[in-house]
Amino acid sequence: MTHTTQETVETEAGPARITWHTANKARLVLAVSHGAGGGIEARDLKALARVLPGHGVTVALVEQPWRVAGKKVAPAPKTLDTGWRGLWPALTRPGPPVIAGGRSAGARVACRTAAELGAHAVLALSFPLHPPGRPEKSRAEELLGAGVPTLVVQGGNDPFGRPEEFPDGPYQLVEVAYGDHGFAVPKRAPIGQDEAVTVITDAVVKWTGSLG
Question: Would the pTM count as exceeding 0.90?
């Protein structure tokens, strides 16, 4: 059983919002934010909020201030980091260790701030290794510099970085075969959309179980 609550948190970047999917006897909190072009209704975030509380992990879906304000375009990375830092005290308040997570731009924020905020681990969904078609503009150092146990979940056809493009480093990577940047799989793919989402939730359940 989970119960869902919402709270608004004031940050220096403006009011942010947390939607809590609280586990009974939670041993971890997974705080996960959205990308630069979407919100917490993304298929992977909704699936994690549905599945993980049953495995002792409270899921906090984080909406950055720009989304709460109804803007269409994300601000500069520095402003995203400010919003995330401002939320951190609310995320740690329940008590269990907090995994910093996010999809796309949110994954970059989690990696950049993990060590400084004392995150227990990082979950990077669709980490944007480079802008589409610009592999020379790598953001690998953000991922490699997280400094805590890190799981990357990446679509096999993600134009922002396919799994084989990722450098070796101190992180685990799980591939969602045929998935794009939003983990959508084409109709002709041998796996269906539900199966693709299950790959994500199964991987995160297993990984959070290994974190202790």
Answer: yes
Whether 77 and 110 have beta carbons less than 8 Å apart is answered as: no
Q: What's the pLDDT tens digit per position in 2-32?
A: 689 999 999 999 999 999 999 999 999 999 9
Which tokens sit at 50? 């549905």
Region 134-146 average pLDDT: 97
